[in-house]
Prior knowledge:
The chain has about 190 residues and is mainly beta. It has one domain (about 1-190). It has one helix and ten strands. Strands 1, 2, 3, 4, 5, 6, 7, 8, 9 and 10 form a ten-stranded antiparallel sheet that branches. The longest helix has 13 residues, at about 1-15. The two termini are about 30 Å apart.
Amino acid sequence: MKKVLLLAAAFVLVFSLAVAGGQEKKVEGAAERPKVVKERAATMTATVEAIDLDKRLVTLKGPTGEKKTIAVGPEARNLPQVKVGDLVSVTYYESMAVEVVKPGSGTGAGQASTIVRAKPGEMPGGAAMRTATVMATVTAIDKKENTLTLRGPRGNTVIAPVENPANLDKVKVGDELMITVTEALAISVERAK
């Protein structure tokens, strides 16, 4: 399924999908423990132009007429059901949540992933989701540059831009941030109408 995800991501990039700017949500809660969530999603559809089942190659035509031939791995079962003219839809979603948590409460760190694919006999398709949570400590705040310097769990440091300068007033050096990143990808094939 990893190859299918990479393939789908390449598919989206090849056809120059313009992902709408992420939306920032302020999650209400205690003012001293702020949380910000940014998310964005994009969907695109292409038409199957040609299929070579022996070589597992599918040629897709994007919404503006560009064509790309993609090698489809064996993990994408049910490929023989795809026909010229069918529509391939790819939806991509990503979010990032940053929450100030009590120092030493780093219980949320870790990773999880889920993969679902079509059952034998169904039209090809699938979905995958990956979530990773990491704890970081604020080591410096630069209000002039609107940045935070963060130290990760392995001791590495990163200077992170802050989009909303008012959020810098809600953190202090020594605070811990729980950062959760979620990515999801869904692929479906439908018969042309």
